[in-house]
Amino acid sequence: MIQHDISGHKNTDFRRSIITPLRSGKKVIGVLYQDSKFFPLDPSSDNMKLLSALACQIGVSIDRAQAYDKIAQLNKRLIEEKLYYIEEKEEFRPFADIIGESSAVHDLHKLIKKVAPTNSTVLVHGETGVGKELVARAIHRESARSEGPFIRVNCAALSDSLIDSELFGHEKGAFTGAIKTKAGRFELANQGTIFLDEICELPLATQSRLLRILQEKEYQRVGGTKILRSDFRLITATNKDLHEAVIKNNFREDLFYRLNVFPIHVPPLRERRADIPLLAAHFLKLYCSQNKKQCAGIPESEMLKLKNHSWPGNIRELSNVIERAVISGHPISFPGLEDPKIVESRPTSKNRDLDTIIKNVERENILRALDKSKGKVSGKNGAASLLGMSRSALLHRMRKLGVEIERRPK
Questions:
Q1: For a 10 Å CB count at each end of the chain, is N or C smaller?
Q2: 3-state secondary structure the chain
Q3: Residues 6 or more apart whose Cβ sits within 8 Å of residue 270
Q4: Are strands 150-154 and 2-5 parallel, antiparallel or unpaired?
Q5: Average of pLDDT values for 10-17?
Q6: Considering only CA atoms, which of 166, 172, 273 is closest in space to residue 226?
Q7: d(Cα 366, Cα 389) in Å, to the nearest integer?
Q8: C-alpha–C-alpha distance, residues 128 and 276, integer Å
Q9: Is 217's pLDDT higher than 60?
Q10: Do the bridges between strand 27-35 and strand 14-24 make them parallel or antiparallel, or are there none, so unpaired?
């Protein structure tokens, strides 16, 4: 307790103030100050004990608040550093458009590097939205034709009556509406690459004309008689099984073998979950820039949703989800993505059989990977690395699917 005179006359008028230190351990971090000129302060022993206990609790609360604030700042810094390192990895990837560091993506890079310097025909196959066109563009950029044009044709978007005209061109008056001569896509692809997406949608008549231009590098415009030549490289893509289409007589067998010189399979996103953080960071940076918004990163809880989602629409679906989250506002969240445990706990009669098939396929893939790694789960050449998964994710799936580890001698 501190007593001091406020009137200037000793022993006539004074004010009592009580100052109690606020401590954190042995360090004083502040004081509790009491002062009143209207009410007397009681400096009794009980009151002093109460003030000491109160000061102790206030000191602890202040210390905890400061600690929480420091933890929050460190956490924010950690998130920023993690985002920075992810961006750094993105900048130094081998092919600018193909993002990922999983074993599946590394294998894809190797195949592109092998076939790009050649003139061989390439058939890229994979599910919708996996990025087949990005593979085709990467092959073109790494080839000797990189200075030439890259001509893309979506075969599924063209009607049967117009597709021959689009591919091979037409002469003036060849059909109603042909008011002038038009060069086809193969003509435009001279000295470059032509990419035929969804090649399985070509009608049989067009398949015959395509077979000829592949064999002879010669063709005629629709309605024309002049023989034209074009020096092009052909890359095709499909999300369907062409071999099955051949069996069903929907695709020419001889054309299939012409196209299937160097097949490249682009894995679905669910088989390369280790790449999801990199892809998410890339799309977040892209859409934040396009929408002129601050890029604050994706919280760990939301990133876990992305990693656990099945992604039936693959990378295209992931891109749409990130764009929607950026537009919706800050902080980044994905309310449309449910917890996979909740989804798994309520199967419907329509998808129960499909779920069983998917689980059997997944179980078979894990068993193959374990067999190849001789029972080794993690580390270099481990099953997790082969599947593009983390060790914890693989062990979780193994428990769910009832897969047991069987170690074999090296």
A1: C
A2: CEEEECCCCCCCCEEEEEEEEEEECCEEEEEEEEECCCCCCCCCHHHHHHHHHHHHHHHHHHHHHHHHHHHHHHHHHHHHHHHHHHHHHHHCCCCCCCCCCCHHHHHHHHHHHHHCCCCCCEEEECCCCCCHHHHHHHHHHCCCCCCCCEEEEEHHHCCHHHHHHHHHEECCCCCCCCCCCEECHHHHCCCEEEEEECHHHCCHHHHHHHHHHHHHCEECCECCCCCEECCEEEEEEECCCHHHHHHCCCCCHHHHHHHCCEEEECCCHHHCHHHHHHHHHHHHHHHHHHCCCCCCCCCHHHHHHHHHCCCCCHHHHHHHHHHHHHHHCCCCCCCCCCCHHHHHCCCCCCCHHHHHHHHHHHHHHHHHHHHHCCCCCCCCCCHHHHHCCCHHHHHHHHHHHCCCCCCCCC
A3: 310, 311
A4: unpaired
A5: 58
A6: 172
A7: 11
A8: 17
A9: yes
A10: antiparallel
Using pLDDT thresholds of 50, 70 and 90, give the confidence band for residue 136: very high
- Token output for 260: 């299937």
Assess whether the previous peptide bond of 203 is cis (omega < 30° from 0).
no
Reported as a single tens digit per residue, the pLDDT across 141-165 is 999 999 999 999 999 888 888 898 8
276 within 8 A of 104, measured Cβ to Cβ: no
Specify whether the CB–CB gap between 298 and 337 falls below 8 A.
Answer: no
With tokens 């109603």, the residue in question is 176
CA–CA dist 202, 234 (Å, integer)? 15
